[in-house]
Amino acid sequence: MTPGTPPPDASTPPPEPLSPAQVIVLGLLRFAGRATPYDLKQGVAGSVGNFWSVPHSQLYAEPDRLVARGLADVEQEPGGRRRKSYAVTPAGVAALDAWVADPPVDLGELRTPALLAVFFGADPAVVARTQLPQHRAKLEEYERLIEAGAAAGEGVARGPGLTLRAGVLSERAWIAYWTEMLEEAAG
Amino acid sequence: MTPGTPPPDASTPPPEPLSPAQVIVLGLLRFAGRATPYDLKQGVAGSVGNFWSVPHSQLYAEPDRLVARGLADVEQEPGGRRRKSYAVTPAGVAALDAWVADPPVDLGELRTPALLAVFFGADPAVVARTQLPQHRAKLEEYERLIEAGAAAGEGVARGPGLTLRAGVLSERAWIAYWTEMLEEAAG
DNA sequence: TGACAACAGTCCAAAATGGAAGGTACGGTT
DNA sequence: AACCGTACCTTCCATTTTGGACTGTTGTCA
Q1: Residue A97: strand, helix, or coil
Q2: Which nucleotides of chain C does any protein CB come within 7 A of?
Q3: Do the bridges between strand A72-76 and strand B84-88 make them parallel or antiparallel, or are there none, so unpaired?
Q4: Taking CB atoms and an 8 Å limit, are A173 and B172 in contact across chains?
């Protein structure tokens, strides 16, 4: 064993890495300070959900798992609906920062049924005609959001705006692709 | 009720739509004529897996589900490893063609951890430096595959080659994005 | 004859998924 | 004040999906 290599085990078992869903919950909680699962649902819908959606049932389950790991804490409304709200603990902040500083390498996948259809013999022009308007609408939506963000100006986190840019570039790529497919003769 | 509208139910319960994994298995079986789950695993790895991966355990489970639905049939090797191999039935061909002709509308998601990291505050330039080489490598790989396909020429299915083009455009978009992020000042 | 790598398949615990169903608060009627 | 409808909010659950650990098989080379 080379010097500098840590001993092949020790006291602490390697802490389970955070799952993407946990990162999303932790990150949204940090933005919000304190939030209920329902708040998280709203939060996901308008922002990170554009590129990584999480079913609502998971937004109810995940916070409790984070509490169990000491990364968040709960608080129960005394009256009314007795809603539970969550906030990130210092350990949670540390875990989130560590993940964010060194995310798993994974380029992602295109994973769209339209592409599967083309792969297995669909007429590309036909598929293109339904895909194009959708992608154009998405692109416009992202561009509007970017403008709105620019107007809002300082004081807000920069991350969300930067990912919007990825959305724009990706939608443009799709539009270019399906436009090409329009030219392809039928199979 | 307007004429031409079918009665609001009848004998046949609505056939469960195919899942993407089932489409992949059916489609690959059709390309191959007859294949074992292991063959499918190899097949996925080199082609459709680039944009829609399927864990190998599913490639063992899914064919049997297709058999149960009458969309494929099994055959057992008489000796040796007694491998099971599958082939698409006429009903399977019909189901696949129907799906391919009218895939669910779903634009897909970017779903990459790197983007999540940026969203939640990572220094975009730092993330970019690990993402860029990976995407460049992927792009080169796709371009090589396209050249190889062009050399192979006629006689092969057109679908796979067309999806490769989507891969190229997508990788270029990523490269453009992360190159922009390199410019962004640190958080 | 054994060792080893590549091949092939099974199994399972732990999640994700998505929808159905169930409660609660609230504003406005009558 | 009783009622209603709607929006809000939460739980539950059956079904898949997931990835990895584990087992066994075949063929090859020393």
Answers
A1: helix
A2: 7-12, 15-20, 24-25
A3: unpaired
A4: yes
Query: pLDDT per residue over B75-92, tens digit each?
Result: 987 766 788 999 999 999
Give the B window 112-171 contacts with A, CB below 8 Å. Answer: 112-122, 124, 126-127, 130-131, 134-135, 138, 157-160, 162-163, 165-167, 169-170
Mean pLDDT to the nearest integer, B148-168: 89
Q: Please compute the mean of the pLDDT values over residues A31-39 and round it to a whole number.
A: 95
How many contacts (CB atoms, under 8 Å) link A and B?
187
SS3 B16: coil
A179: domain range?
A: 113-183
Domain limit, last residue, from B101, B128, B162: B101
- CA-angle at B184, arms to B178 and B187, nearest 5°: 115
Same domain as B87, residue B37: yes
CA of A80 to C1' of D3 (A): 22
For residue A9, give the 3-state DSSP assignment. Answer: coil
- Percent of chain B predicted with pLDDT > 70: 90
Same domain, A120 and A177: yes
Q: What is the pLDDT of residue B186?
A: 64
What stretches of chain B adopt beta strand conformation (E)? 72-76, 84-88
Contact residues, chain A, for B134 at CB < 8 Å: 105, 107
The answer to whether residue A122 is domain-embedded is yes
Residue A6: pLDDT band (50, 70, 90) is: very low
A185 touches chain B (CB under 8 A): no
Cβ proximity of A54 and A44 under 8 Å: yes
Q: Name the domain count of chain A.
A: 2
The total number of residues written for chain B in this structure: 187
Q: Residue B9: inside a domain, yes or no?
A: no
Q: Does position A52 have pLDDT exceeding 90, yes or no? A: yes
Nearest to B87 by CA among B102, B72, B71: B72
Question: Closest nt to B83 (CA→C1')?
Answer: C8
pLDDT tens, residue by residue, A103-154? 999 999 999 999 999 999 999 999 999 999 999 999 999 999 999 988 887 7
**Residues near chain D strand, CB within 7 A:** A 36-38, 56-57, 60, 81, 83-84; B 19, 21, 53-58, 61-62, 80-81
